[in-house]
Amino acid sequence: MTILGRRGRATMLIPALAAICFSQTSAALADSAGQSSLATAASQQKFAFILFYRTNNAATQAMHKVLNTELQRRDNAALVPINITDAQERAVVEQYDASRTPMPAVMAIAPNGAITGVFAQRLLPAHVASAIVTPGQTKCMRALQDKKLVLLCVQPAGAQNVPAGIQQFRSDKLNVNRTQLVSIQASDPAEVKFLQQLKVRPDTRSAVTAFMAPPGVLLGTYNDKVTPTILMNRLAAAGQCCADPNCKHRKAATAAKPTTRR
After folding, report:
1. Does one domain contain both 84 and 171?
2. Taking 70 as the threshold, does the pLDDT of residue 17 lie above it?
3. Does residue 261 lie within any of the structural domains?
């Protein structure tokens, strides 16, 4: 995810994986050994680390060794080896477009079907750790990979109210079908890593909303006084406004861009 700061500078937060299509979730798969393993992992709320390979060469064995060592230390992840030349595994290979990736490759799949990491030809222990993300982050990543806008509302301990401006933005006819609302508690210990990335304090006293757009751009974080206009203007400035060429937010963003002299 790219963070667009207040001065327009961008840094990476979540990998942009939205180009990979979801024809169905892992839990819906059946038949082959790989499909069965993916379905089992999803039903057990485990991350599935698919090791795609063509031949059992030194690189494949090295990636398998790292995966096997790291996953044995965890109870929330499973190893799923898949040979991309196996006709029985064609559905999985096509679903994740694995044939386009340099082999061998590891793809991490969250229980909800979100792809949380892709690592080609070389795998480090840190890669495995980075791909096991928080529940809130998996929801955001899945929505972004489904090409939706995301409003992540981080609530103070015990609070449940979504800020009025967020509700109004989401209910607007331009946004209702393309926006996903995700709510998490700032005090949730399971979300510590994600909140640290977002720079949101666990003891926040008011709701903080992170506004995200595909493929993984963080447009900004806002307090509970944010308005729909602020969000629409930010969206337009990022080039992800609605499809209406006469949209006032699109026109405002265009007018605000500096002209270049020749």
Report:
1. no
2. no
3. no
Tokens of 225: 């006084």
Q: pLDDT category, 262, cuts 50, 70, 90?
A: very low
Q: 74 and 105, same structural domain?
A: yes
CATH code at position 102:
3.40.30.10
Residues 252 and 191 in one domain: yes
Name the residue range of residue 99's domain. Answer: 19-131
Q: What is the pLDDT of residues 227-237, one digit of tens each?
A: 999 999 999 88
Percent of the chain residues topping a pLDDT of 90: 72
Convert the pLDDT of each residue in 62-84 to its tens digit: 999 999 999 999 999 999 999 99
Please give the Cα distance from 148 to 209 (Å, whole number).
Answer: 16
Backbone φ/ψ region at 259: left (φ over 0), alpha (ψ -120 to 50), beta: beta
